[in-house]
What we know:
The complex is a heterodimer of chains A (241) and B (259). Helices cover 85% and strands 0% of the residues of chain A. Chain A starts with a helix and ends with a helix. In chain A, helix 4 runs antiparallel to helix 9 (208-237). Chain A is built from 9 helices and no strands. Chain B is an alpha/beta fold and 259 residues long. Chain B has 3 domains: 33-139, no CATH class; 146-189; 221-251, no CATH class. Chain B contains 6 helices and 7 strands. In chain B, strand 3 and strand 4 form a beta hairpin. Chain B is elongated. The N and C termini of chain B lie far apart (151 Å). The chains are: A mainly alpha (241), B alpha/beta (259). The interface between A and B is medium-sized, with 25 and 26 residues.
Amino acid sequence: MTLPLFLWQSVRATFTAPYRWKDILIQLEFVSWQSLPVILFCLCFAAIVTIMESSFHMKLVVQNDALVPGFAALLILRELGAVVSALLLTSRVGAGLAAEVGSMKVTEQIDALRMLGIDPVRFLVVPRLIACTVGGFILSIIANLACLYAAMVVSEIKLGYSPGAFITGMRAFVDFQDLVFASIKGATFGAVIPLISCYFGFRCQSGAEGVGSATTNSVVASSVSIIVLDFVLTYIFSHFY
Amino acid sequence: MKPQTKVGILFLVAAGLVVVFALALGSFQPFSNSHELKIAYNFAGGIEVGSPVRVMGIKVGKVRSIDFQPEYKIPDTGEEVKLIIRVSIDKKAWPTLRADSRFFINLAGVIGEKFLEISPGSLEQPELKPDQVVRGEDPPRIDQLISQSYALAGKVLEFVNKNEGSVMETIETMNKLVTNFDKMLKQLEKTSRNPEVHRIVKNLSTIMEDGAFFSQALRSPEGIKTMSLINDLIRRLEPLDAKAIKKFLQEEGIRAKLF
């Protein structure tokens, strides 16, 4: 099965009933609830680094870091929050999906589904695709705002800007549409992860080596796709700023 | 905990965070504490939606929208304006905005971000009404100024090139004039140090003072009366000639050689 055909089948199945709501909810819980701690933890550290580096460079260039809260908030919302969350989600969820589907392929469970007259794409990919898209959307909102909160705390402790000053600085640069675009990015990246991972799972070669190879390839391909898609989406959104 | 509950909690948290974020940014204001004002410009100098609005240097609101209205005319004056900037202003600052308030677009900060500055009006003037349209002060167009300066410099250069001979002649003449003026001033300074000149100046001053005193005395009622008497006397003496005076003197027994 080629990638375009696989993508077409997955998207078509996603937009046609019936849906397996229970499976979708379980996957959604796996993607969002279980991934949230690691994403929040990593993004908070990313926010700390962003604030400190921005301050260093602003002081180096204009001898003043008064604009750091605004710049850092904008950077977090437009790029950092969505991309880092998606990459973390890839390493956690994408790898798991590729291994799961790959194992099913190797153990001929997918063939068994076909034998039973069940479309494996609808059965395996659609719940994961919906769950990852919705999960990516929610996670990007929570992760971005938690990241902003961490940046605000670091700004107060390290740079001496009060929360009020941080929010005032942020308001000069950040608009509500930045969060909307970040959520769209999150949802798009979330959709890419199961599509790429399941595709590599479906193409898995026999044996443990094949499963390992499919997992590795899926993570690499998903990460590259996310970076490329980030560029494409940023370019598209730049027309709306 | 069931997966449904966990997912539900996440949805609620996300929705709550979105509301908090919108409130923090001021994008969502269910309990608005501001009035809106429309400011008309023909050139907005790079101001953007979200730019701060300040009254006396204090941030009191922000630019809500910028609308292009090619056929709009100010109701009071009938002046054509193309841009209407809608701003929200805190109710606390609203009483300072009067009919004679002025609306400038200024630069601030290290990167020169634009903001809208409002000067407070005088107490004699009435307060502005919410949603009223006022005329803003168009900021100077730097590009236009530079272009005009270039054009002016070009014309000056062209004039100098065309009239190089006469310009040089004019400059030389002016140089001579200045040199002569300088010499004259030096001569005047030397002359002023001469004691004879001092004496003449002093006498002139005395004469002027006396003249002033005399003319002042003539203007007094006494002076006017005296002048009137002299005038009468001259009129009476006018018909008298030498023969009449001689006859009069002979009759009086006085021998005199007249005229």
